[in-house]
Amino acid sequence: MSTIQQDLSTVIRERHSVRKYDPSFKISREEISEMLNEAILAPSSSNLQPWSFIVIQDEETKKELRGIANNQEQVETASAVIAVLGDKEMYKNVEKVYNSAHAAGLIDEATKNMMIENTNKLYPAAPAEVRTNIANFDAGLVSMQLMLIAKARGYDTVPMGGFDKQKFAERFDISERYFPAVLISLGKAAAPAYKSTRIPLEEIVTFI
């Protein structure tokens, strides 16, 4: 096992959901941006990257958000809460995505045009529910990547689906194109995380 693999294994094993945070500990906007820049390297369907983020650090806004998030303490005490939004109209990113890939020399013009054409045929015709499911799945990928990146830097996180998504969308003026997928508290633990166990692998895997 390489050193990189050992380090990743340690991060995975040591990452636990933390709900008690040191409210005096602050993470800079610059470092949060660095973590997000690494997180958005996560894969996505057709590389359409159907996500965006709201980073909430203002103390009064966090207090207000706590009320929207079922009074969960970590919303107020963590250094930041990162709202991961899913994009139901991710196909509107297609020209930006593939023009960028072409400009970087990663694909030729014929491939670029084909990908744009295929995306514009497939995604707008798909039911909104299908596109929402795709965006939700990809939001999960970028969220997990963000939490592992944070742990590798010595920070703690907890993902939260238990909040009033309609009230959140209204409070933060989110357009119909986007939906709040998950909130992630980010900060420094003030108490050990609760440990958990897993169902044994042999009960949930089939090798064929």
UniProtKB/TrEMBL annotation:
Signal peptide range: none
GO molecular function: oxidoreductase activity
Gene3D superfamilies (UniProt xref): NADH Oxidase
Domain Nitroreductase positions: 12-188
Keywords for the protein's UniProt record, in alphabetical order: Oxidoreductase
InterPro entries: Nitroreductase, Nitroreductase-like
Coiled coil regions, renumbered to chain: none
Domain of life: Bacteria
Family statement: Belongs to the nitroreductase family.
Protein name: Nitroreductase family protein
Native source organism of the sequence: Mesobacillus zeae
